[in-house]
Amino acid sequence: MAKAPEPSTIDWANLGFNYMDLPYRFLAHYSDGKWDDGELTEDATLHISEGSTGLHYGQADFEGLKAYRTKNGEINLFRPDRNAARMHKSCERLLMPAFPEDKFIAAVKSVVKANADYVPPYGTGGTLYLRPLMIGVGGNIGVHPAQEYIFTVFAMPVGAYYKGGVTPTNFTTSYYDRAAPHGTGQSKVGGNYGGSLLPGDEAHKAGYSDVIYLDPATHKKIEEAGSANFFGVTKDNEFVTPKSDSILPSITKYSLLYLAEHNLGMKPVQGDVFIDDLDRFTEAGAMGTAAVIAPIGGIEYHDKLHVFYSETEVGPVTQKLYDTLTGIQFGDVEAPEGWIQKVPLD
Ligand SMILES: Cc1ncc(COP(=O)(O)O)c(C=O)c1O
């Protein structure tokens, strides 16, 4: 794998979402019942045993967050404490030893600082995407938790999700489930994503941007998209998002629930969203770190497309939520207490 190009040669405004081997990543090891301090390394290759549980038994979890360049050249992290806490929970679910949350945040900051030249300039819409990852390693063969683990944080610059302004796309429902009723849906674990590749591929081939999964027990309620939670806006100024034990607790979702209430004066509601009752919504979208908000033009269900606001234009509430959240992330709109952490650069 080739090293990342020199920052001065990168076309920041036209980056996609692609892996890049940046100069530095953080790597820590767990053995004999404790984590070492970890350190920055230039080696992008993990050297692990063929018996690693992360390879065979899905003992692997991860996170995704971004660093944002502000107008005055500083670098913001958006709620990294929430990613640290969510990874802690994912680790508990897979019997993995959580990396201490304060050290998680310090590791993320050290990776951003070491690769600061790769944080895209303000105004290009680009960000530095960070991928914390933990896997069980060492010589194992039985289905048991590993005795040794690796925790790493690597990074790459990624482009603005929308180049020509926020635009809606259509989503479809699927016969497949993303998660079982009491399974691992609420944890950010590798196995959830392996199983989503086939339904995601079928949706793309049929012309949809992603699958909206239905609840695995009854297939009557909306759960979430492949990598984003769902929201709908009602005629009565409610911001509605599904409540379920088998969806990933999206940090973007909790942020928008707050902003809908405090910045837009809406009523935040977490509850059931029945797939045959979509008329209650005037606008809908999918929300997550990658897209911030992906407006949903329509959802296909039983061969019928239910269109919300428009298949081509973003609704006014969705646009306002998008502008408010991205404004906070890039430092242009005042953030609620504790949402932004600066990366120390000297
Ligand atoms: C399945 C799933 N749902 C929702 C999200 C959105 O979560 P967040 O807003 O924390 O990025 C993600 C991405 O992390 C995801 O993978």
From TrEMBL:
Does the record carry Transport as a key word?
no
Q: What PROSITE patterns does this protein map onto?
A: AA_TRANSFER_CLASS_4
GO biological process terms held by the UniProt record:
isoleucine biosynthetic process; L-leucine biosynthetic process; L-valine biosynthetic process
Catalytic activity, as annotated: L-isoleucine + 2-oxoglutarate = (S)-3-methyl-2-oxopentanoate + L-glutamate; L-leucine + 2-oxoglutarate = 4-methyl-2-oxopentanoate + L-glutamate; L-valine + 2-oxoglutarate = 3-methyl-2-oxobutanoate + L-glutamate
User: Which residues are recorded as modified (N6-(pyridoxal phosphate)lysine)?
Assistant: K188
| Keywords in alphabetical order | Amino-acid biosynthesis, Aminotransferase, Branched-chain amino acid biosynthesis, Pyridoxal phosphate, Transferase
Instruction: Name the coenzymes or cofactors required.
Output: pyridoxal 5'-phosphate
Recorded E.C. number(s)?
Answer: 2.6.1.42
Presence of keyword Transferase:
yes
> What GO MF annotations does this protein's record show?
L-isoleucine-2-oxoglutarate transaminase activity; L-leucine-2-oxoglutarate transaminase activity; L-valine-2-oxoglutarate transaminase activity
Q: In which pathway does it act?
A: Amino-acid biosynthesis; L-leucine biosynthesis; L-leucine from 3-methyl-2-oxobutanoate: step 4/4; Amino-acid biosynthesis; L-isoleucine biosynthesis; L-isoleucine from 2-oxobutanoate: step 4/4; Amino-acid biosynthesis; L-valine biosynthesis; L-valine from pyruvate: step 4/4
**Protein family according to the UniProt entry:** Belongs to the class-IV pyridoxal-phosphate-dependent aminotransferase family.
UniProt cross-references to NCBIfam families, sorted A to Z:
ilvE_II, PRK13357.1
Q: What is this protein called?
A: Branched-chain-amino-acid aminotransferase
